[in-house]
Design a protein that fits this description.
With 119 residues, this protein is mainly α. The chain is built from five helices and three strands. Strands 2-1-3 form a three-stranded antiparallel beta sheet. The N terminus is likely disordered. It comes from Streptomyces griseoviridis.
């Protein structure tokens, strides 16, 4: 059997996760990260950096959602948020939510819905 749950490359043993996060179980109440937060690297990985931190910096050369990072790392989202908080606190990544302007205006959606109902 390979790792937890029998999935190749996956090792979610509690002691490994404890080591990755330095014993922390939450990113903190003021964490800016949710599933759709876009993360962008502000620098390249440096020698001696924790391998997960380096992997995050490599995969976030372009804006990448937290959920995508967690999936790529094969780590729980909560653990990924802790790692991202470490990088954010060190100024190695920036975080932003997808633009609200990119979403259609609710009034326009309502008008479209009314128009469709009238057909």
């Amino acid at each position: 059997m390979n790792g937890a749950g029998g999935r190749p490359g996956r090792d979610d043993a509690p002691d490994r996760l404890y080591t990755l996060t330095g014993g922390r179980s939450r990113a903190g109440a003021d964490s800016p990260f949710d599933l759709v937060t876009l993360v962008v690297a502000e620098c390249d990985p440096v020698p001696g950096m924790q391998s997960e931190h380096a992997a995050i910096l490599r995969m976030t050369e372009r804006p990448t959602a937290v959920v995508e990072i967690a999936a790529e790392l094969r780590l729980p989202v909560g653990i990924t948020k802790i790692l991202l908080t470490d990088l954010l606190d060190a100024g190695r990544v920036s975080a932003r939510h997808p633009r609200q302007e990119a979403l259609p205006d609710p009034e326009i959606l309502e008008q479209v819905l009314v128009g469709l109902r009238n057909l």
